[in-house]
Amino acid sequence: MASAIDLIALDLDGTLLAPDETISARNRLAIREALAAGVRVVLVTGRGVDTPIRVSRELGLNLPVICCHGALTKDFGADKTLAHIPVPLKYAVEMIGFAEDHGLSAAIYIEEAFYRLTGSEIVMDDMRGPGWRETPSLREILTEAPTFLRFLGEPSVRAILQNFGDLPLNFRHETWGSFVECAVLNREASKKNALAALCAGFQIPADRVMAIGDSRNDIPMLRWAKIGVAMANALSEVREAVRYVTASNDRDGVALAIERFCLSAARKSA
């Protein structure tokens, strides 16, 4: 009997990536075996394009990557943007202007790069990556609609929500230990919507999809897929939102889920 799953959607941070941002040998093997069995694998992440493209190439994946919480889908093989759902410029200008005037910690993703103010505090490890740039003024670079905005730390998040929380936008909250972040996106941008659109292009229905993740922004995607799997290291609200929970990201949780739901049937038929 062949696998009942045709496509696997994988979150990166807290899911496929271990705490040190490596991918375990067992996770790599499970993905390789799934690909060999004819199962498609796609990365779906809140990150910008650089890391998912690098990881996709390392793993031999040939599907587009879904980035920026679903606001950007990129066919990196053809260097083509398949979908881009930016924040309306008028809202972005208002929020970034307010953030600069009040000394809030903020970042903008525009033209496939993150921008922060020159000399601003590095509050997350990913801010040291090559996808980040500094600018004397975030307000001045906002000449086109950005893919999304990030507000970093509880004071910045609280101020933005108090002053702009009623705007028709998608406010995505994430918690990393004691650190809080809010990503602001177009209301139509989400991992679930981007994954559904990608699957429609391949004529793959939701009941042939498995999705694995750990964050709040993964919940709609996990509930849309036939098999939604939360990581053991996920917040309790994420684990309680789905039927299945696998091991943590430092215990080969992705591999265990793939082996259970995708490879067991394929191995029996081999």
Short description:
The protein has nine helices and 14 strands. The chain is α/β, with parallel strands linked by helices.
Low-pLDDT parts are none
Q: Structurally, how many domains make up the residues?
A: 2
- How far apart lie the N and C ends? 9 Å
From the spread of the alpha carbons, the general shape counts as globular
**SSE order, as H and E?**
EHEHEEEHEEEHEHEEHEHEHEH
Portion of residues in beta strands equals: 15-25%
Based on DSSP secondary structure assignment, what is the total number of beta strands?
A: 14
Biggest beta sheet attributes: 6 strands, mixed
SSE class: alpha/beta
- Taking all Cα atoms into account, the compactness measure Rg is 18 Å
User: What is the mean predicted local confidence, pLDDT?
Assistant: 94
Count of helical regions: 9
CATH superfamily of the largest domain: HAD superfamily/HAD-like
What name does CATH use for the topology of the largest domain? Rossmann fold
What helical percentage do the residues reach? 25-40%
From the coordinates shown, what is the CATH architecture of the largest domain?
Answer: 3-Layer(aba) Sandwich
Taking strands numbered 1, 2, ... along the chain, how are they ordered across the largest sheet? 8-7-6-9-11-10
Task: Please identify the top-level CATH class of the largest domain.
Answer: Alpha Beta
Describe what you observe in this structure.
By secondary structure, the protein is an alpha/beta fold. It has two domains: 7-84 and 189-269, Rossmann fold, CATH 3.40.50; 89-186, Hypothetical Protein, Haloacid Dehalogenase-like Hydrolase, Chain: A, domain 2, CATH 3.30.1240.10. It has nine helices and 14 strands. The strands form three sheets. Strands 8-7-6-9-11-10 form a six-stranded mixed beta sheet. The protein has a five-stranded parallel beta sheet with strand order 2-1-12-13-14. Strand 4 (72-75) and strand 5 (80-84) form a beta hairpin. Helix 1 packs parallel to helix 9. The longest helix has 17 residues, at 253-269. The model has no long low-confidence stretch (mean pLDDT 94).
